[in-house]
Design goal:
301 residues, alpha+beta, Arc Repressor Mutant, subunit A, D-Maltodextrin-Binding Protein, domain 2, 3 domains, 5-stranded mixed sheet, 4-stranded mixed sheet, 38% helix, globular
C-alpha cells in the first residue's frame, strides 16, 4: 500500500481545492483520486474532506492532519534534495516574490553573491506587498512575513521577525518618554493599516487604539515619518535594525512588543521533487539570515 502516495494525493487535493485538478497534476483519473482518498479515510477511520458537488472543505480532523502531512512531505522533499544535491547543477529561471521593503533591503543586495555561486540560474524577483498566489502566478517560491500555521503551501522558516516600538531621540526629548502604555495616548502614534497595536508585555496582551494624524497604505511612509521625528511607530527590526544600532532610533517601552506570532518564511508548492534552483536559493537565504539574523545582531530583544 502506497501510504506516502496517498498523503501526496491528499495534499494535492487541498492545494488545488479540487479532486479533478489534483488528478491532472498527478496524471491520475478522478476515479483513482477519489478511490485513494476513500482508502486513506477508511484507514484513518475519520473523514478528512467534506465533499459537495461544487466544493471541497477540510473537516476539523482534516485540518490538523493536513498540517502534519505538509510537514512530512516537506521533510521527504528535503531528504530527496539532499540525496540528489550532487546530481545536478542549479539552472534555469527562478521566479521569486518578496514584500517590497524586505526584498529591497534584504534580498536584492545579496543576489549578486547567489548568482555568482550559481551562474546557470537567472533570478526574476518581483516585489509586492499584495498577497501573491504562488501556484497561479507560476512562482518557484515567495518570501512571506506572516503566521503560516494554516498555509496549504510548504513553509520553511528563514528567520524570526520582531516588531518593537521606536522613536527618534529628538522626538522623545521634546515630547517626553512614555512610562507605560497609557501614556501613549499623549503621543503621536504612526501606523498604516489597522488603527490599533496588539502588544505583549509584563501585564499580558494589550490593545492600543490609535488616532493618527498620518494616514497611509504604505509601511515605507511610516518608516520615513518616524525617522523624521514625527512620532512613535511599531516597526520590524529587519526594517530599523541599523537605525537602532546607530542610535538614530531608540526603543520605546522596551518591555512591550507586537503580539503577532510571525516569522520570515520561504513558501513554495508541495512537490515531491523540489528543483535544485529553488533548493539552492532557500539554502542561501537560510544561511544568510540564520537564527539570529544580521539585522538583529547586537540588539537586546
Amino acid at each position: 500500500m502506497d501510504r506516502l502516495g496517498d498523503l501526496d494525493v491528499f495534499a494535492r487535493i487541498v492545494a488545488a481545492r479540487s479532486m479533478s485538478a489534483a488528478g491532472r497534476e498527478l496524471g491520475l483519473s478522478p476515479a483513482v483520486v477519489s478511490k485513494r482518498m476513500r482508502r486513506l479515510e477508511e484507514r484513518l477511520g475519520v473523514r478528512l474532506l467534506q465533499r459537495t458537488t461544487r466544493s471541497l472543505a477540510l473537516t476539523e480532523a482534516g485540518r490538523g492532519f493536513h498540517e502534519r502531512v505538509v510537514a512530512i512531505l516537506a521533510s521527504v522533499e528535503e531528504a530527496e534534495a539532499w540525496a540528489m544535491s550532487g546530481a545536478a547543477e542549479p539552472r534555469g529561471l527562478l521566479r521569486v516574490s518578496a514584500p517590497t521593503s524586505f526584498g529591497r533591503m534584504h534580498v536584492a543586495p545579496h543576489l549578486v553573491r547567489f548568482l555568482a555561486a550559481h551562474p546557470q540560474v537567472t533570478v526574476d524577483l518581483a516585489l509586492s506587498d499584495a498577497f501573491v498566489d504562488v501556484v497561479a502566478e507560476g512562482l518557484d517560491l515567495a518570501i512571506r512575513i506572516a503566521d503560516l500555521s494554516d498555509s496549504s503551501l510548504v513553509a520553511k522558516k528563514l528567520a524570526p521577525s520582531h516588531r518593537v516600538l521606536v522613536a527618534t531621540p529628538g522626538y522623545l526629548a521634546v515630547r517626553g518618554t512614555p512610562a507605560d502604555l497609557d501614556a501613549l495616548a499623549r503621543h503621536t502614534l504612526l501606523v498604516h493599516g489597522a488603527p490599533e497595536w496588539r502588544l505583549d508585555g509584563p501585564d499580558g496582551p494589550r490593545t492600543v487604539r490609535i488616532t493618527s494624524p498620518l494616514r497611509t497604505n504604505s509601511s515605507e511612509v511610516v518608516r520615513e515619518a518616524v525617522l523624521s521625528g514625527a512620532g512613535i511607530a511599531l516597526r520590524s527590526t529587519w526594517d530599523v535594525g541599523s537605525e537602532l544600532k546607530s542610535g538614530a532610533l531608540v526603543r520605546v517601552l522596551p518591555a512591550w512588543r507586537s503580539s503577532a506570532r510571525v516569522a520570515i518564511h520561504a513558501v513554495y508548492p508541495s512537490r515531491r521533487h523540489l528543483e535544485q534552483k529553488t533548493r539552492a536559493f532557500i539554502d542561501f537565504l537560510e544561511e544568510l539570515y540564520g537564527a539570529t539574523p544580521y539585522w538583529d545582531a547586537g540588539l537586546r530583544l
